[in-house]
Amino acid sequence: MLNPQIQEALNKVFAEQSHRPRRRQEGIQALNRLVPISLNDTGQSRVIGRFLLGLWNGQAYPFDLTELRGLDSELYADCLAVLQLDRLGEREVHEYVKGGWAVWDQLRKRCH
Known about the structure:
This protein is mainly alpha-helical and 112 residues long. It has four helices and no strands.
């Protein structure tokens, strides 16, 4: 029988693992909604673009999280879903997007 603390830690790990497929799916869907918006020319699109660049390379493109406050609720929720996706650590965020390098190159030109 395992120590109760070890058992509790293992249960948390297993619970986290069980949520990965849902977080991946929701994050990819959110990312696919955010990318086209990020390429527009509005205040919200620039915030989203900087957010995505920050996930991609936070040292080169630092992002002030307080900027998320200015987003519509749906866009804010999508950003959080993408952040959860990025936390999975399975791929770089741009690798989930078709033509990701080209898209991120456009973002770099627009948002920096």
